[in-house]
Design brief:
Layout (H helix, E strand, L loop, with lengths): L3 H7 L8 H8 L3 E5 L4 E3 L7 E7 L1 E7 L5 E8 L3 E2 L1 H6 L6 E4 L3 E7 H8 L3 H27 L2 H16 L1 E2 L6 E4 L2 H8 L3 H13 L3 E4 L2 E4 L1
Antiparallel strand pairs: 1-8, 2-7, 3-6, 3-8, 4-5, 4-7, 9-10, 10-12, 11-12
Helix pairs in contact: 1-2, 6-7, 7-8
Length: about 220
Amino acid sequence: MPNREILLRQVPLFRSLRPEDSARLAELLQRREYHRGEYICRTGEEGDTLYMIISGKVKIVRRSRGGEEVILAVLSAGDFCGEMSLLDGLPRSADVIAVEDSDLYLLTRNDFLSRVINNERTVKSILSTLSKRMRRADDFLADIFFLKVGARLTKKLIEISASNGYQQQTGGPIVLNVTQHLLASMIGATRESVNKELHKLRDRGLIRISGKKIEIL
């Protein structure tokens, strides 16, 4: 189990905290387990908690009125979400769902405000973190408008390879545990179009498809 204080300092919001402040804040973290498919929070719910992932994976999802979903991000150990509601207290803007059995640490807004809001370095870290999130959102919108499905898929595969891929042997292919449905949701496309583009990459000798795994050659 990761040390609470170490995990806390992996969150950009808290990297500038003094060791004593970080230690006190870490004592306030609450641990909770979520099962695969369980909602961690839902769109429209009151937002007052930051979530830090100890183990497992979660996805951040936006849905249309027709029920179609777009996955904004898939997060794993060391990642965090919910910082917007932690700061403004407004309702959740997306669903957060456990992709697999996951352990999380929770930090409430009241605890956060009482401990760190008057820390100048922390406020600067908050602004920097929110700026980076906004830039990623801008990049996602630009991809939707300007890149074809094949380019968006290739870009996403490279991104996932860097963050969640693994090699079974040194120098071997990078293995991704990701479904076509998940990929489609992440790039704003249909599963059928993703399947078509994956087979093009396979025919070019760039990837190998093995069940629910994709190997980057």
